[in-house]
Amino acid sequence: MNKLIIATLGFPIFLFACKEKKQPDPVSKQVCVSDSMLPMISIDSVKMSNIDDQLKLSGEISFNESKVVKLYPFSSGQVAEVKVNLGDRIKQGQVLAVIKSAEIAGNYSDLVAAESDVAIAKRQYENAEALYNNGISSQREFEEAKQNLQKATSVETKIRETLRINGSGRTDKNGNFTIIAPRSGYLLERKINPGSFIRADNTENMFTIGDITDVWVIANVYESDISRIKEGYTAKVTTLAYPDSVFVGKVDMINQILDPQTKVMKVRIDLPNKGLALKPEMFANVLIENKEGRRAMSIPASALVSDDGKSYVVTYKGQCDLKLHEVKVIKATEGGPAFIKEGVQLGDKVISKNQVLFFRALSQQ
């Protein structure tokens, strides 16, 4: 009786043990790309690329100062005529204004007297030379006549040079002198009118002529971005006036001093102005491109999946061979490439469209 009870009680235990042994081990669910899903993804390869850095700045169009000329009065006088208007296209040698000057008239009067003095001094020198050569006069008298001629000639030359400079080579005995354009360009400033009186010690210019076939863009660089810009970098400029046009220039000067108020550093961009579309004082958006030849693995930035402060990619070897990789990103550009330091290998294929769906499934395994 007792043996039967033990056998009977032990039977359920045996069945339970056998049941436990026959239960299969759990198998992880495989993640696959279905045939219907395949056209909805994009696959790109990991490749080596140059690291292109971009920096966005704001700035303003200005004149190329090396192509701007300001004209100041050399003599006092009254403006008799102004022959140009603001914005006119100016040609080198063109007459800008005529000024009547008592000072110029006085210079001509002085020139007549100086020419007379030179003629007299020349005759005296010739006589002294002849007497000296014949032994009639002393060497001292000959040298004195020679010095007098040199002084008279020097005075005449000085007056002629003054007239040439003051009238840019165009003066007359009535005291009129002309202001002519020293270079071609556009009349940017006109500060005199007929009847105006001017003085030689006036610090204000009469005209400004500028050539805007080349312009400068003065852009602001914040302290945190100083290390990202160097002379010679390519700059792409757009303006509000021409939002669909891109003007390409070069960074040709970097100011080494920060503005104490705004804490920005000024950089200058030399920009060809085709069609003279760009005007000084225009606001400009500047994109600085740094292409120094550094290389790294790259993938489309769209292939990255960010989660909890980390970056991941989904690699593809086959429809049912997907893997999740954490990657170290050097730099990612919106709509462009992402440069990878580690986490993938050259030639790996990554899913760059709708990869988030597979990331979720793979991350739960």
Automatic annotation (TrEMBL):
Residues 215-290 form the CusB-like beta-barrel domain. The keyword Transport applies. Keywords: Transport. Residues 68-211 form the CzcB-like barrel-sandwich hybrid domain. NCBIfam families: RND_mfp. Belongs to the membrane fusion protein (MFP) (TC 8.A.1) family. This is Efflux RND transporter periplasmic adaptor subunit. It comes from Pinibacter soli.
